[in-house]
Amino acid sequence: xxxxxxxxxxxxxxxxxxxxxxxxxxxxxxxxxxxxxxxxxxxxxxxxxxxxxxxxxxxxxxxxxxxxxxxxxxxxxxxxxxxxxxxxxxxxxxxxxxxxxxxxxxxxxxxxxxxxxxxxxxxxxxxxxxxxxxxxxxxxxxxxxxxxxxxxxxxxxxxxxxxxxxxxxxxxxxxxxxxxxxxxxxxxxxxxxxxxxxxxxxxxxxxxxxxxxxxxxxxxxxxxxxxxxxxxxxxxxxxxxxxxxxxxxxxxxxxxxxxxxxxxxxxxxxxxxxxxxxxxxxxxxxxxxxxxxxxxxxxxxxxxxxxxxxxxxxxxxxxxxxxxxxxxxxxxxxxxxxxxxxxxxxxxxxxxxxxxxxxxxxxxxxxxxxxxxxxxxxxxxxxxxxxxxxxxxxxxxxxxxxxxxxxxxxxxxxxxxxxxxxxxxxxxxxxxxxxxxxxxxxxxxxxxxxxxxxxxxxxxxxxxxxxxxxxxxxxxxxxxxxxxxxxxxxxxxxxxxxxxxxxxxxxxxxxxxxxxxxxxxxxxxxxxxxxxxxxxxxxxxxxxxxxxxxxxxxxxxxxxxxxxxxxxxxxxxxxxx
Length: 577
Prior knowledge:
With 577 residues, the protein is of the alpha/beta class. The chain folds into three domains: 9-178, Rossmann fold; 197-341, 3-Layer(aba) Sandwich (Rossmann fold); 363-572, 3-Layer(aba) Sandwich (Rossmann fold), CATH 3.40.50. The protein starts with 8 loop residues before the first helix and ends in an 11-residue tail after the last helix.
């Protein structure tokens, strides 16, 4: 306990979080939030994990929530909360229940403000500014000013977080975290999401009609399958129906890619060509729990009328007909029941896509200079050869590498993490800490150099906490994903990059030394293999690997995506000599 009171408001929140399975709070300290931090330090069962930046702490909490179902970050008022805002916006978009914990000027401070008009530190002058901002990216933004009401506010907010799998914001007046509070009664439960009977019945009937008549139906799985713990229900549906399935990039490994009839990850033109062709020819797409970003505009524009979309966010539809108060669990379970009764299932599928063979490590590949394709072939080939896929968590950032990952397959359930909808540069590097604490697997991130430069301090956090994580930095000295869409001709022979897309040259080996991690610089396949072999023997040490790739090497998946979205290719470019 952090004060003379035997049980405080801070203790109440920590008890509730512990009941929900939380074991780590990622934090950057501040004077306003000191009462909460004192309580956390003395609370049995939850550990404070210090980070160097509020944004890094937010990314870590987001990563932790992806694997455990709940995350928490504690930061200073104003300067801290506004810094962590980007991470929490991503948690909101991608359905990760992260609890933001902070504190604002105390009861006495507020009296002083009223009497003198003084501007307290880290304040905009509007003491409600933080909570008003966070109301836009959370399902609850509560200000705790009275300990007698704090219990109800905390319970209400946490219940909404676990019900809708979204973040919440809890700000207490500085003194309130340390004030006496009664202990919680019982445990919190998510609110039941019960579909309206008429809407569910109508959607089932209409969906079965479209599914039964389709020649090439496809199931597209989204991230809500993971967030709402519906993996077993989906597997039952896939096994009963015999329907092939794909996932979005955000939902990659929502179930094991070795289960059912997996046709590859769908990421528009970044997909395997065979996957893209199969998906585009589907005359019925059953999209379950999918967040449709603009990466999927091609599907939405061409197959809108043939889509059955069911989500937990009031956007369920069949074609242009919308069905309200319809929820995933009810729909999946009842659809599966109906399919099991039908003689049409399990379906016999023809013309399934033939995915390319898995990459192999060959002498020729080892002698080549690294490119995007060579790096992924060697890296993934090594994981396959040494049977390491079930021993790592693979984290991809908003970079060309994210789209290359759409061409990986065979990964086990919950082994792939990406900020694929919100798309914040540097997320993967900050996220590593949370993923490492949430799992006994080794966290391995593949970052673009631009994103890594934004969050390199997180490498020090990884080292500080003696995590054995590995960060690969694709070092090509350019914002390649940005340049691809601005002007793909920069990647043609003689092409010029936009000045604003160029990056500075960093000495990554010196950076690794400064942060006390193992450092590697690899330019060829042989050097990458040697680095991987050494890293795997250093099982208790973190590592930074600079993967040197020519600036004008355009990732094949990015080339496919740009062609699909804009119609432009490098081959069309006429560069004057």
